[in-house]
């Protein structure tokens, strides 16, 4: 029972961080928001234009046959960067979605930067 409470508290704190960060950032057509989501098994990201309320591009490690580790995050970041370049988007706002900026999240952001996307 204690483990379930710990998990609920951890998720509640992440949601609190997420709302605090999202109050300060927003995506536009010129500079969309890259929102990342990670679970223990998979990683996904969306490029969102908040003004129009549409998703411009997305990537999922599950669809690519990858898992949620740093190497897979780098491959997923490179894939997303390629789809952004195809749509002539070179600058984005990074939304870490309440996750701490290390490990998988940092590897994904670094892969975007390495492939020519400015964060």
Automatic annotation (TrEMBL):
This entry carries the following GO cellular component terms, namely: cytosolic large ribosomal subunit
Q: What single Pfam family name could you report for this chain, choosing any that match?
A: Ribosomal_L18p
User: Keywords of this protein's UniProt record, alphabetized?
Assistant: Ribonucleoprotein, Ribosomal protein, RNA-binding, rRNA-binding
Q: Name one GO biological process term.
A: translation
| Keyword rRNA-binding belongs to the record | yes
**UniProt KW Ribonucleoprotein keyword:** yes
A molecular function GO annotation: 5S rRNA binding
Q: Which CDD domains match?
A: Ribosomal_L18_L5e (cd00432)
> NCBIfam families given for it?
L18_bact
Q: Which family does it belong to?
A: Belongs to the universal ribosomal protein uL18 family.
Give the HAMAP family listed for this entry. Ribosomal_uL18_B
Chain's role: This is one of the proteins that bind and probably mediate the attachment of the 5S RNA into the large ribosomal subunit, where it forms part of the central protuberance.
* Subunit structure of this chain's protein: Part of the 50S ribosomal subunit; part of the 5S rRNA/L5/L18/L25 subcomplex. Contacts the 5S and 23S rRNAs.
The name of this protein is Large ribosomal subunit protein uL18
Primary gene name: rplR
